[in-house]
Amino acid sequence: MAGKPEFITPEMTILEVLHRHRQTEAVFRRYEQDAKGCLLCQALFATLAEAAAKYGLDLDRLVGDLEDCVAGPTDQAG
User: Fold this and answer.
1) What are the sequence ranges of the domains in the chain?
2) What is the model's pTM?
3) In angstroms, rounded to a whole number, what is the distance separating the alpha carbons of residues 45 and 43?
4) 42-53: per-residue pLDDT in tens?
5) What gap in Å lies between CA 39 and CA 72, rounded to an integer?
6) Judging by beta carbons within 10 Å of its beta carbon (0-12, 13-18, 19+), is residue 72 exposed, middle or buried?
7) Quick one: CA dihedral 72, 59, 29, 16, positive or negative?
C-alpha cells in the first residue's frame, strides 16, 4: 500500500507498534521515567490507551511522539 500513511492509534498494542515500526523503541524508552518502569517489559501486550491509563502517561502526547518518530525527519532536501 505505497503512499498510504499508516497511523498509530490508541487501540494498537505496544507490541504491534514496535513490530511495524522498530524505530519507536526509542520513544517508549523516553517514557520509562514517567512510567516508573519499562513499558516494553511491563506492558508489551497492552494497548497504548491501557498503558497510558495504567502508568499515568499523556496518551495524546505518546501517540503524537510515536507518529513523529514514524514520520521521520521533515527535512526535504532536494
Assistant:
1) 14-69
2) 0.85
3) 6
4) 999 999 999 999
5) 22
6) exposed
7) negative
